[in-house]
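notes to self, project folder thing:

trying the whole complex as one job this time. last attempt i did each chain seperately and stitching them together was a nightmare. two parts in total, labels are on each line so i dont mix them up again. if this works i'll redo the older ones the same way
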Amino acid sequence: MIERGLLIVLSGPSGVGKGTVRKALFEQEDIKLQYSISATTRKPREGEVDGVDYFFKPREEFERMIENKKLLEWAEYVGNYYGTPVDYVEQTLSEGKDVFLEIEVQGALQVKEAFPEGLFIFLAPPSLSELKSRIVNRGTETEDLINNRMRVAKEEIELMDAYDYVVENDKVENACARIRAIVTAEHCRRDRISARYKRMLEVE
Amino acid sequence: MIERGLLIVLSGPSGVGKGTVRKALFEQEDIKLQYSISATTRKPREGEVDGVDYFFKPREEFERMIENKKLLEWAEYVGNYYGTPVDYVEQTLSEGKDVFLEIEVQGALQVKEAFPEGLFIFLAPPSLSELKSRIVNRGTETEDLINNRMRVAKEEIELMDAYDYVVENDKVENACARIRAIVTAEHCRRDRISARYKRMLEVE
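result (full assembly):
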């Protein structure tokens, strides 16, 4: 019998470095996570493959998926829909693979509602001043926008209580090591595996 | 403010390799666990230092500690008492150090009663037949004793539900890596650290 995989949701305030951590994690050779493939209504770009980069869907079909609750979360962004298809996630978990989803805080809260047994990891800045300097160092935003982002970040940190774990992103490699440790530890949780051992006692 | 340390209790059936795993863990250079020092009424052997190898106690004092609930667990073995002093554990935890205790199943259940907020890790054999061959390979026991040990081991595996985690001891290095991952993950648990982040939001 295959042990069902875990759904791991990495989230955190904008600017904290979610994308960087996710990228570093998937560059590690021995990583065994399956990156969650999103559905979208936007057109494929050159070289993008359906079912690999995205599941490309006509707008009508996406809206039917929303209606039929076939998305763990979804959002509209610059006129296109993006979302996480339930069926794909369920199928992958039932193959015993851990699915990894990196997502904004609002999306993570949607996933939590649809899939409370997921593993919710909040990526946190070492401090607010550090977060501010990361946002400022992108160099793309005006002071007003920066202040607005900081206000949103504070609100998002207040939402930390919905998460199972908080990983400090002091250094990308430390954050990756902590996330991997959390996944390993969760697979050792007694409530997940004691049934397997009890079966062992019965058959031997 | 120092984050309080964790009490980590490693236990499991006799023959599963608790001592071997503990030894390998403490041979790792970057390990940051504090091995729990036991109190005992047995006489110090040559080279043993009070407060390092054991806390050596007169019998009367040990019995007073039992009465005053100053031991997380205790047992009598070949005419001597052995036990884990509460005060030493509390002091070490309050210094922010994680305390590691390797102990028989019955002792672990005593600790659980006195200190339910501990982290209880059950070291499990890959299979019952593997456990049996480990016990047989010690080469010191008669068939009756071996069968008796297997009976006890099965009873102990049934007690797994009192633990937080189950670590399979397929290979010592794998078991060590899993234990370290569990300790790292537990330090990232949101309920342990969200208060720290909320303070951060207030002061900055």
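what i see at first glance: The radius of gyration of chain A is 19 Å.
need to look closer tmrw
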